[in-house]
């Protein structure tokens, strides 16, 4: 939704991971089919780029997440647990903000709007 609301100004990237309650327990080739027919279903087609399934924690952490977690500390309301459900906002190629696992991604729009206002000045 947000990517279509801010075309040419916002890019959303999805990294499926099976480390959080087994949400992505299918193979890479089955992930898009699963989105379309199972969860969320109803013919859902993501309007953003979906990468191959990766790990965001542990010894096989994808380099993107290793970099982001190194650059941005734990959010204040997130306990320092071994298993993290990372959500990041990147601004002009640089890590800007890390959100806690309690943060609902739907609420990210005010931060996006604030950053987009910065580019107008």
Automatic annotation (TrEMBL):
InterPro entries membership: Glutathione_peroxidase, GPX_CS, Thioredoxin-like_sf
Give, as one word, the top-level EC class: oxidoreductase
Alphabetically ordered keywords of this record: Oxidoreductase, Peroxidase
What PROSITE patterns does this protein's entry cite? GLUTATHIONE_PEROXID_2, GLUTATHIONE_PEROXID_3
Q: Name one GO biological process term.
A: response to oxidative stress
Documented EC number(s): 1.11.1.9
A GO molecular function assigned to this protein is: glutathione peroxidase activity
The family note in this entry says: Belongs to the glutathione peroxidase family.
Assembly, per entry:
Homotetramer.
Query: Which protein is depicted?
Result: glutathione peroxidase
Organism annotation: Esox lucius
Lineage, opening ranks:
Eukaryota, Metazoa, Chordata, Craniata, Vertebrata
